[in-house]
Amino acid sequence: MKTVILSLATLLSATVMIAQSNTSNVSQSGDDNVADVTQIGTENSSATSQEGMGNNALAIQGSDAFDSRNGVVEQTQVGNKNSATAQHEEDANGIFQSQIGDGNTATATQNLALFGGGNAAEQSQQGNGNSATVSQEGILNTAFQAQVGDGNMASTTQEGLFNFSDISQEGAFNSASIAQVGDFNAAQQIQLGEANNANAEQWGTDNVLIQDQEGGGNSAISLQGSSIFDSRGGEVQQIQIGDENTAFANHEEDNNTIRQGQDGDANSASATQNLATFGGDNFAVQVQLGNGNIASASQNGSNNVSDQFQSGDENDGSVTQSGTENLAIQTQNGNGNIATAVQGGLFFTSRGGTINQSQSGEGNDAFARHEEDDNEVTQTQLGNGNVGFAVQNLATFGGENEAIQFQLGDENVAISDQNGSGNVSDIFQLGAGNFAEDVQLGEGNSTFVTQGGNLNSSTILQVGTNNSAVVTQIGF
Questions:
Q1: What is the C-alpha to C-alpha distance for residues 7 and 5, in angstroms, rounded to an integer?
Q2: Are 206 and 228 in contact (CB under 8 A)?
Q3: What's the distance, Cα to Cα, between the start and end of the chain in Å?
Q4: Residues ≥6 apart with Cβ < 8 Å to 184
Q5: How many other CB atoms are there within 10 angstroms of residue 16's CB atom?
Q6: What is the residue-wise DSSP string for 215-264?
Q7: Which residue, among 88, 95, 176, has the nearest Cα to 138 in the 3D structure?
Q8: What is the rounded distance in angstroms from the CA atom of residue 165 to the CA atom of residue 179?
Q9: CB 43: neighbour CB atoms within 10 A?
Q10: 153-161 vs 219-224, strand pairing mode
Q11: Alpha-carbon distance 153 to 217, whole Å?
């Protein structure tokens, strides 16, 4: 096909190269503005309007190797020293860019390496020194980016089919980036304030991400899938209100969900699931209200559930689960509480285990761990300075262990250590300064300790089979 090129150097330093019935409208008002339009292909249309001084707009549709068919580029700039660049190839791609202010930069490229089309990129910036970049390869991908303020940065990269991204930022020096490789992925980032950072990567299909931050100095990072293992049907929600909060989420494989919500200052939430492990259907929730709280969850395998809620200041909750059908629920209300739940280990999985820990007050410490079959731990501590410690079936095969420890008061200590199978330990302490310890080795053991008063002490050791011990103390 013979190509006809028209060279035009008019209209306030505008240079336009048009081929094959393409249409280009350039309108500039001000000084030292430059607009370059190069169109190679069929039925392209480009409209450039600049108002101010020292602005630069460049629109390139198609190349000598690949046409741009039915592509549309519109770039509008009002202010000084703004720069807008747009280029796409293949079918039915659209780019719309609008900038108001000084020193802003907008760049959008579509289908420069892969066959496809139907992509749309829309960028809007209002303020000074903002930067927005969109790069899309594939079919029917859509990217929206809007920034209001100064020094903000937004970046979107998409490759595949039917991916959707939306970035909205208002404030100063915020940074947001989305990278999606696969099909039918959707991501949304909303930031309001100053110096917030949102980073997201999605590899696979049907993944959904929402990151919403309000305040200053917050950071949210989400990784669904990787270049080695995809994430299919994954969901991540990260919402942070306050200053200097941190949220991290990472999982692979099928139908995993992570939801993180933080309201306050200097909180940290981290959750990882199914990393380099086949499986899926994991679920993790982390909610923190207050300041300086830490929540961490690590789950491998399938069908694990982790629910963490903390209200107050400087609480620390951690969950580690390996195996199948594990459930860990940790709720802490107060200040300076520590809750640690570990199910399974490096060599032994924990199947059907349940850990439920609830603490109210200050300075409480709860630790629970078990391995193998049908284990259950429940620890509830109300008051201050209580310690609950439960260990079941470490390095011992099998077990239908159950350890329930309830403490109401201050500075109580309850320890349950069980090995074997069929063990039951129930420790209830009401008062302050009570101490109860239970050690069971063998099978068929049962222990019940009830202490109602202050400064009571009980120690039980059972080795053998079919043992039973009951201790009840009421008084001081």
A1: 7
A2: no
A3: 101
A4: 161, 162, 163, 205, 206
A5: 22
A6: EES-EEEEEES-SSS-EES-EEEEEEEEES-EEEEEE-EES-EEEEEEEE
A7: 88
A8: 9
A9: 16
A10: unpaired
A11: 14
- Residue 336 amino acid letter: G
Q: Rounded CA gap, 29 and 76, in Å?
A: 12
Q: pTM of the predicted model, to two decimals?
A: 0.90
* Under 8 Å between Cβ of 275 and 296: no
Output the CA torsion sign for 18, 24, 30, 34.
negative
Alpha-carbon Rg for the chain, nearest whole angstrom, is: 30
Question: What's the residue count for the chain?
Answer: 476
Whole-number Å distance between alpha carbons of 164 and 233? 15
CA gap 306, 322 in Å, rounded = 12
**Which of 411, 423, 410, 432 minimizes the C-alpha distance to 460?**
423
124: which residues sit within 8 A by CB, 6+ positions away? 97, 98, 99, 145, 146, 147
- pLDDT (tens, 9 = 90+) of the chain, 476 residues, equals 323 222 333 333 333 333 456 777 767 788 888 888 787 877 777 787 889 999 998 888 888 778 787 878 889 999 999 999 998 888 888 899 999 999 999 999 998 888 888 899 999 999 999 999 999 999 999 999 999 999 999 999 999 999 999 999 999 999 999 999 999 999 999 999 999 999 999 999 999 999 999 999 999 999 999 989 999 999 999 999 999 999 999 999 999 999 999 999 999 999 999 887 777 889 999 999 999 999 999 998 777 899 999 999 999 999 999 877 889 999 999 999 999 999 987 777 777 889 999 999 999 999 999 888 788 999 999 999 999 999 988 776 777 889 999 999 999 999 999 888 889 999 999 999 999 999 998 888 999 999 999 999 999 999 988 999 999 999 99
With vertex at residue 187, the alpha carbon angle to CA 182 and CA 188, rounded to the nearest 5 degrees, is 165
